[in-house]
C-alpha cells in the first residue's frame, strides 16, 4: 500500500511513499528511506490503558535459565480433546526446559534458595548472589556426596556472612530443609575451596535485631553495643558464639537499666542456652 504526500525539495513535485522509501513522482528523487517502525514501543497484554509494558520480565540469576524461558498458558475456554492436547504439550514443554541432571539440580536448589530467602525476609540481592555461589560450587564439583538442601542453605548463610547480614545457623536451619551438620559441612566446603571473603562475625550486628525482637528501648540497645565494644577490647569475644555475646550484652544492659529481661528470654532469641549467656554475663561483670 502506498500513500502520496506533497513537497519534493528539487522540483516541488508530489511525493509517493511506498514501503520504506519516499520517492518524487515527477523527477524520481528518493527523498527518504526509513525502515523504523513508528508505532508504539510498548506491548499491551490485558489492560492496554494502565498496563503497557516496554520489555519482558527482567533477567535474574535466581533461575537456571536466567528467566528467559517461556510457558504454555492455561485457558478455561478449551474443552475436550483440545484441552487434553494442550495439557500434553505443556507437560512436554516443562520436560524440555531441563535438559540435564546439572540443570535439574539447579532448578531444585534455586527453588530452595528462593524459599529460604523469602522465609527469612532477605533481599533479592542476597537471593541472586546465593544462586551465583551455588553455581560456582557446582562448577567446582563440590556437590558430590553432599545434599542439595545443605548446599542451598549454606550458600544463603555464606552470602549473609560476606554481605554483613547477621543470621545464625539455627535460623537458617529452621527455614531450610537441612540440619546444622549438613549446612556446616557444605559451608566448610564452600569456604575451603572457593575462598569466601568471610571474617569473624561481629556480635554488634545481632544487637539491633535481638533488641527489636525483645522489644527493648533504644537506650538499652545503645548500651549493649557499648558493652560489645568493651568485651572486644577485653578479649571476651574470641572463641565465643557471637549471638550469645550479643544476647549477654543486651541482658547486661537491661539489668543496668532495671529491665525485666530474663536470661531465658535473651537466650531464646539468640538460639543459645542460658548457660552460654550466663558465662558471658559473668565475664562482663568481672
TrEMBL record:
Region of interest (Disordered), residue spans: 40-73
List of residues binding Zn(2+): 8, 11, 24, 27
Function: Stabilizes TBP binding to an archaeal box-A promoter. Also responsible for recruiting RNA polymerase II to the pre-initiation complex (DNA-TBP-TFIIB).
Family: Belongs to the TFIIB family.
Zinc-finger keyword on record: yes
Pfam families: TFIIB, Zn_Ribbon_TF
Sequence repeats: 111-194
Protein name, entry field: Transcription initiation factor IIB
Chain ranges of the Cyclin-like domain: 111-192, 205-286
Superkingdom classification of source: Archaea
Gene3D superfamilies (UniProt xref): 1.10.472.170, Cyclin-like (1.10.472.10)
Keywords annotated in UniProt: Metal-binding, Repeat, Transcription, Transcription regulation, Zinc, Zinc-finger
Amino acid at each position: 500500500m502506498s500513500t502520496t504526500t506533497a513537497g519534493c525539495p528539487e522540483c516541488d513535485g508530489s511525493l509517493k511513499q511506498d514501503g520504506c522509501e519516499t520517492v518524487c513522482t515527477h523527477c524520481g528523487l528518493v527523498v527518504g528511506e526509513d525502515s523504523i517502525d513508528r508505532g508504539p514501543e510498548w506491548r499491551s497484554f490485558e489492560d492496554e490503558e494502565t498496563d503497557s509494558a516496554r520489555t519482558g520480565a527482567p533477567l535474574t540469576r535466581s533461575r537456571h535459565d536466567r528467566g528467559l524461558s517461556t510457558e504454555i498458558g492455561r485457558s478455561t475456554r478449551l474443552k475436550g480433546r483440545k484441552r487434553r492436547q494442550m495439557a500434553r504439550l505443556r507437560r512436554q514443554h516443562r520436560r524440555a526446559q531441563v535438559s540435564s541432571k546439572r540443570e535439574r539440580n539447579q532448578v531444585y536448589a534455586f527453588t530452595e534458595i528462593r524459599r529460604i530467602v523469602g522465609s527469612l525476609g532477605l533481599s533479592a540481592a542476597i537471593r541472586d548472589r546465593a544462586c551465583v555461589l551455588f553455581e560456582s560450587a557446582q562448577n567446582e564439583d563440590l556437590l558430590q556426596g553432599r545434599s542439595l538442601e545443605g548446599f542451598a542453605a549454606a550458600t544463603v548463610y555464606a552470602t549473609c556472612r560476606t554481605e554483613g547480614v547477621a543470621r545464625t545457623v539455627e535460623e537458617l536451619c529452621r527455614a531450610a530443609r537441612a540440619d546444622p551438620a549438613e549446612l556446616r559441612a557444605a559451608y566448610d566446603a564452600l569456604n575451603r575451596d572457593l575462598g569466601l571473603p568471610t571474617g569473624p562475625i561481629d556480635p554488634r550486628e545481632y544487637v539491633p535485631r535481638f533488641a527489636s525482637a525483645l522489644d527493648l528501648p533504644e537506650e538499652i540497645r545503645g548500651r549493649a553495643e557499648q558493652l560489645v565494644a568493651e568485651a572486644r577490647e577485653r578479649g571476651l569475644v574470641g572463641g565465643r558464639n557471637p549471638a550469645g555475646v550479643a544476647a549477654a550484652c543486651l541482658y547486661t544492659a537491661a539489668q543496668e537499666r532495671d529491665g525485666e529481661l530474663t536470661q531465658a528470654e535473651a537466650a531464646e532469641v539468640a538460639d543459645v542456652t542460658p548457660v552460654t549467656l550466663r558465662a558471658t554475663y559473668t565475664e562482663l561483670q568481672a
